[in-house]
Amino acid sequence: MPGTPGIREVMITRPGTPRPEPDRVAVEEPMEVRVNGAPFAVIMRTPGADRDLAAGFLLAEDVVRSAGEIGTIEYCADADDEGRDNTINVTVLGDAIARLEVRLGDRRQVMMTASCGLCGRRTIESLQARVSAVAGQWTVPAGVIASLPNRLRAAQAVFESTGGLHAAGLFDRAGVLQLSAEDVGRHNAVDKIVGRTLLAGQHPLNDRLLLVSGRTSFELVQKVLLAGVPLIAAVSAPSSLAIDLATETGITLCGFVRGPTFNIYTHPHRIDG
């Protein structure tokens, strides 16, 4: 699959095999996000769906709160040749302009990466001031949740070639995959999905489920809360703060989804059987 976005071919050697042979690895490159022309953040990501990633990231950072506050998302023509495909500018409108000034003040002299985020009791309270709780008082069979990892894995083309990427998948209540994303960062994979659905005017996603590879952190629950997703599942464990946030905002949080059984940490009323 040479030439596929997100994949690079390298040469490797193996013990006992003297001749080099080709292999494939996941691409990781920095993307600078500018907002209204001002540098805002640098995200280490796998190239692809950059506009979606930027939109989802700015929703989580409380710069924008709706698609109507986003004007344009464009690659920066003034960047040097090396950074031209890795520098993107988002134009924000309306109330987002004032929020941007506050966020820029908070970020002065602070280096940020995609894995950074706010945490703690104060952050939970500030999130609840924006979105007190998710909607979606429906149920889904436990068997649907158990089937999600295999369904997402079938869509992970880059992971299949490299073994080096996280993934996120957005499903309907029947377990049908609606949208998926891959990235070196699981936060980025979720931001790509949240950003794409935000730009498409589909929020809140109160009739959808989200599955992530790896563990569930506070930041991931924060992202699904802001997108209005009532249920998040993961193939690994959640953190204590992820459980706290899910508990207080009505999100059903499932972990260790690796077969017919899994753990339900919060709001089990949405799981049948």
Question: What tags apply to this protein structure?
Answer:
single chain; 273 residues; alpha/beta; 6-stranded mixed beta sheet; 8 helices; 32% helix; 29% strand; flat
Descriptive account of the structure:
With 273 residues, the protein is an alpha/beta fold. The protein has a domain at 140-272: 3-Layer(aba) Sandwich (Cytidine Deaminase, domain 2). The chain is built from eight helices and 14 strands. The protein has helices at residues 50-60, 95-107, 121-130, 142-153, 157-162, 186-199, 218-227, 240-249; strands spanning 7-14, 17-26, 29-35, 38-45, 70-75, 87-92, 140-141, 166-171, 177-183, 209-212, 231-234, 252-255, 263-266, 271-272. A six-stranded mixed sheet has the order 9-8-10-11-12-13, with helices on both faces. Strands 4-3-6-5 form a four-stranded mixed sheet. β8 and β9 (177-183) form a beta hairpin. The longest helix is centred in the C-terminal third of the chain and has 14 residues, at 186-199. The N and C termini lie far apart (42 Å). Mean pLDDT is 87; it is low at 109-119.
Low-confidence stretches: 109-119
CATH architecture annotation name of the domain at 140-272 = 3-Layer(aba) Sandwich
CATH topology type of the domain at 140-272: Cytidine Deaminase, domain 2
Largest sheet: 6 strands, mixed
Write the layout of secondary structure elements.
Elements: E1 7-14, E2 17-26, E3 29-35, E4 38-45, H1 50-60, E5 70-75, E6 87-92, H2 95-107, H3 121-130, E7 140-141, H4 142-153, H5 157-162, E8 166-171, E9 177-183, H6 186-199, E10 209-212, H7 218-227, E11 231-234, H8 240-249, E12 252-255, E13 263-266, E14 271-272
Parallel strand pairs: 3-6, 7-14, 10-11, 11-12
Antiparallel strand pairs: 1-2, 3-4, 5-6, 8-9, 8-10, 12-13
